[in-house]
């Protein structure tokens, strides 16, 4: 039976329940820290972004916003003319590359697709193969990134008879860097690109360590790429970095830089409004007060949504997904930290049956979670039904049911002292990362969803979802498993591999990194090869992996959000770019 409680109604229902039950038993809030319950505590750090701070964030002046919108319109016209005017292949590709890295290509999707389609159809691959390494690599990367099929054989002229990269290529730093970035678009089984990755990595490192090269700008670009290739980077953070680089890198295209700056600030102003809207919802729930064992991470959850779909038209998705992210974290902490196994069994059954009456048997803290979850999911489904006339309720519910069942599997492992094999762990762990919920929402809550699309998704999760979720899980485990073990959580991929293979942690971490490279190749292939899914959804799958890498690159940027994650929030959500 569909549930359609409004958020205030959801809270009122819970408060009514409290009043009824308070005559017969003490409130659970009084017992949250009670030692006789045997509750665990993870001692998570409190939020650094309180609601009063969020609502104090200043938006741009209304007159400035109008002026900026007019400037963007003018600059877009200039850029559009440039796209069609550029004649040499190199110039066309460099322009499109700049637009994409500057974060403004979404304004020119049709123009860019027209140009790349024409290039893909009209260009003779044999002629391209005889071009310089920089151009060939740029051609390959841009076409693959935008969904066009280009074989890795395009690089075979750069390898000798022993299938080694020709040594003279190492002197072409621009070509090396371009090939390095292209190599990270490899699909499974593409050996030429794998050899190219090894070769370029080695020589780019040598370049950085050499005293014979004094180009500081080029060294910064190389260092940035070696830290993380473009295909693995969170788009919006890279855009913020690239805007600073582009200002002095190509003064002949100052209009593009100005467009990127003004557009970035306009979008950031939109983010501030969305964040305030999400904060009002989170403040009404007051989970962070009433469930003090959970991670209060509203702003970090919103940042994840920006990393998944940054464009203005995806505002509805970002709001809905921020709510879902907060609920995923809350329920994850219920399973990992606070709930007894018996409570978790009852909670999982209530979610699996999707039955509000079953919440009567649950303790109050779990009733809060169930009511908020039911209300949020049904509200999202109702919005889609109103806008598109489509029933996405079964898909949204399925994601949460699968997530909670997977959480319960881990809880049972923990309480039984069972250490799964790495394969067992990942068969369950790709779900417990919670990204199946994010991607189900991304699929259903967007303007392009159709009835045919829903049929394709309703039979199960496609491979592209599983690959994306697995990558998110592996990135999470590399950064968080040690802390989670200290608080008594179930063993993660690293410990499972160590236990069953009898190897050191260093060896196990190396194995996980190898798996990350493997799953990126699988994800690249799925994103390129499956025409059944809209480009937006395929990008969301790629971006989930990118944002996971970003959050966990320097440790647990989610559980301990006061270092790199704080800087990322400041750059993307708070501080506008100065145009002078």
Largest sheet: number of strands, sense, barrel closure? none
Discrete helix count: 26
What number is the mean pLDDT?
Answer: 88
Order of SSEs: HHHHHHHHHHHHHHHHHHHHHHHHHH
Note the overall shape: globular
The portion of residues assigned to helices is 55-70%
Strand content: under 5%
Q: N- to C-terminal separation?
A: 57 Å
Low-confidence stretches: 1-36
User: Quick one: how many beta strands?
Assistant: 0
Radius of gyration: 25 Å
**Which class best fits the helix and strand makeup?**
mainly alpha
Domain Terpene synthase metal-binding: 284-521
GO molecular function, one term: terpene synthase activity
Organism: Rhynchospora pubera
Cofactor: Mg(2+); Mn(2+)
Protein model, in words:
The chain is an all-alpha fold and 580 residues long. The chain is built from 26 helices and no strands. Helix 15 runs antiparallel to helix 20. The chain is globular, with a radius of gyration of 25 Å. The N terminus is likely disordered. It holds the Pfam family Terpene_synth_C. This is Terpene synthase. It comes from Rhynchospora pubera. Keywords: Magnesium, Metal-binding. GO terms for molecular function: magnesium ion binding; terpene synthase activity.
């Amino acid at each position: 039976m569909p549930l359609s409680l409004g958020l205030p109604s959801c809270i009122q229902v819970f408060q009514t329940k409290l009043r009824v039950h308070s005559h017969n038993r003490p409130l659970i809030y009084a017992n949250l820290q009670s030692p006789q319950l045997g509750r665990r505590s993870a001692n998570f750090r409190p939020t650094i972004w309180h609601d009063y701070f969020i609502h104090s964030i200043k938006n741009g002046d209304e007159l400035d916003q109008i002026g900026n919108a007019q400037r963007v319109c003018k600059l877009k016209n200039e850029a559009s003319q440039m796209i069609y005017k550029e004649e040499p292949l190199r110039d066309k590709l460099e322009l499109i590359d700049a637009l994409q890295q500057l974060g403004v290509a979404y304004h020119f999707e049709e123009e860019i697709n027209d140009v790349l389609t024409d290039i893909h159809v009209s260009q003779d691959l044999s002629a391209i193969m005889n071009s310089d390494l920089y151009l060939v690599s740029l051609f390959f990367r841009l076409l693959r990134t935008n969904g066009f099929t280009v074989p890795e054989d395009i690089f075979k002229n750069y390898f000798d008879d022993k299938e080694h990269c020709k040594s003279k290529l190492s002197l072409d730093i621009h070509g090396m860097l371009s090939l390095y970035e292209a190599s990270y678009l490899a699909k499974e089984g593409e050996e030429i690109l794998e050899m190219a990755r090894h070769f370029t990595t080695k020589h780019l490192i040598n370049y950085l360590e050499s005293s014979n090269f004094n180009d500081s700008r080029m060294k910064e670009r190389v260092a940035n790429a070696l830290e993380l290739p473009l295909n693995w980077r969170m788009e919006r953070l890279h855009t913020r970095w690239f805007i600073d680089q582009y200002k002095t890198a190509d003064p002949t295209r100052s209009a593009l830089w100005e467009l990127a700056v003004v557009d970035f600030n306009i979008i950031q102003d939109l983010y501030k409004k969305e964040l305030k809207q999400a904060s009002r919802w989170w403040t009404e729930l007051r989970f962070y007060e009433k469930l003090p064992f959970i991670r209060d991470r509203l702003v970090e959850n919103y940042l994840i949504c920006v990393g998944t779909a940054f464009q203005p038209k995806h505002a509805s998705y970002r709001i809905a997904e921020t709510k879902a992210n907060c609920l995923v974290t809350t329920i994850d902490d219920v399973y990992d930290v606070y709930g007894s196994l018996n409570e978790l069994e009852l909670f999982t059954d209530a979610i699996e049956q999707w039955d509000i009456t079953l919440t009567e048997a649950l303790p109050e803290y779990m009733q809060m979670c169930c009511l908020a979850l039911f209300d949020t999911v049904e509200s999202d489904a109702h919005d889609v039904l109103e806008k598109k006339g489509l029933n996405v309720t079964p898909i949204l519910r399925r994601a949460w049911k699968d997530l909670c069942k997977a959480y319960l599997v881990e809880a049972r492992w923990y309480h039984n002292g069972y250490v799964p094999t790495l394969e067992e762990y990942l068969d369950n762990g790709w779900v417990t990362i919670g990204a199946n919920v994010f991607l189900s929402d991304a699929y259903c809550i967007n303007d392009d969803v159709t009835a045919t699309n829903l049929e394709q998704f309703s039979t199960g999760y496609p491979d592209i979802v599983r690959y994306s979720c697995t990558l998110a899980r592996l990135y999470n485990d590399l950064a968080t498993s040690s802390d989670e073990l200290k608080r008594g959580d179930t063993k993660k991929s690293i410990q499972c591999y160590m236990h069953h293979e009898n190897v050191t942690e260093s060896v196990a971490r190396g194995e996980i990194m190898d798996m990350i490279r493997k799953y990126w190749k699988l994800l690249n292939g799925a994103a390129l090869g499956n025409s059944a899914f809209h480009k937006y959804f395929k990008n969301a799958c790629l971006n989930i992996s990118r944002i996971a890498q970003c959050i966990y690159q320097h440790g647990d940027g989610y559980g301990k959000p006061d270092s790199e994650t704080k800087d990322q929030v400041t750059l993307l959500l708070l501080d506008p770019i100065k145009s002078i």
